[in-house]
Amino acid sequence: MKKVLIVYFSQGKTNMRVAEAISKGLIEAGHEIKIWNLMDGRPPDPREYDLFGIGSPTYYFQLPFIVTDYVNGLPDLSGLPAFVFVVNGSHRGNTGNSLRHALSLKNARELGYFHCHGASYFLGYLKVGYLFSADHPSTDDLTRAAEFGREVAAHLAGERYVKPGDDPPGALLYRVERLAFSRCLVKHVYSRLFRTNARCRPDCDLCIKQCPAKNITRGEDGRLLRGRDCLLCLSCEKNCPEDAITSLVAGPILRPVMLLNTFLGSRDPSLDYARVIHKNGQTQRL
Ligand SMILES: Cc1cc2nc3c(=O)[nH]c(=O)nc-3n(C[C@H](O)[C@H](O)[C@H](O)COP(=O)(O)O)c2cc1C
Q1: Helix %, strand %, coil % for the chain, to 5?
Q2: Same domain, 139 and 204
């Protein structure tokens, strides 16, 4: 029996469900699993385990900054066997490539790479009426994830692993959009352009509790204050029961970009979607 640590970042539970399915495959092979969501603080040291798995969603065609920071902050893994999984709503861009490269820079030894779709609660698309990959991870995705867990166990036991090549770079449009949401621009532009209106209730604090970066506080005058660690996940704006928070990303200025992406996505045969309405922190299917 080997000890396995699986670390993932999940706000919408799709990565969590995939992590659990992968661990099911590993448990069947006789291993002991510890699963950790980066939402719950700093995970245990992977060097205390025999196998390390890391999973991430795609945010803006790249790794969310919280995952980048976690992987970059890891110590040297000195050949520790590792696997990677990515769960994304439409196009994963360079998410898988960056995660795999970051782990190899830490001298981890890759034993598997898995990806599948997960429901995309990205507010920019919800606001224009689209929920991509609405029913993912599907039963089939989770069956594949469990099978992946069994395959990783076999590679750990010595079966030969043939490393897959990098994901293709993706459409030029999405590569440009990835640059438009670079960390520097998020920090110095987008994160400064959240607005909170008078409907905000000082007794609510849902946005403060749910911010994965702990970036929101309430000042003595009752107003919301934001630091410089925003991930631009938009959970504050998306979940606000009063629709009191607005951002540049999900607002009228970038609406044409969201309309273009959802138009292209809705015509992509490899993607499925549901039409929705998003209001007062709730997404309802039409
Ligand atoms: C802020 C934000 C940005 C996103 N950007 C992308 C993207 O560029 N490409 C994509 O395929 N999915 C994107 N998604 C969808 C997520 O990758 C997908 O919903 C994933 O399954 C979420 O994982 P979770 O449910 O574990 O949090 C985005 C979601 C959010 C919240």
Answers
A1: 35, 20, 45
A2: no
List phi, psi (to 5°) of 52.
Answer: -125, 125
pLDDT digits (tens, 9 = 90+) for 159-182: 999 999 999 999 999 999 999 999
Domain residues for the domain of 261 are 172-285
Ligand 1 pocket member 15 (CB < 6 A): yes
Is 133's C-beta closer than 6 angstroms to any atom of ligand 1?
no
Which residue owns the Cα nearest ligand 1 atom 21? Answer: 118
pLDDT tens digits along 45-98: 999 999 999 999 999 999 999 999 999 999 999 999 999 999 999 999 999 999
| Whether 89 and 226 share a structural domain | no
285, 276 contact by CB (below 8 A): yes
Model-level pTM greater than 0.90?
yes
Residue 165 inside a domain? The answer is no
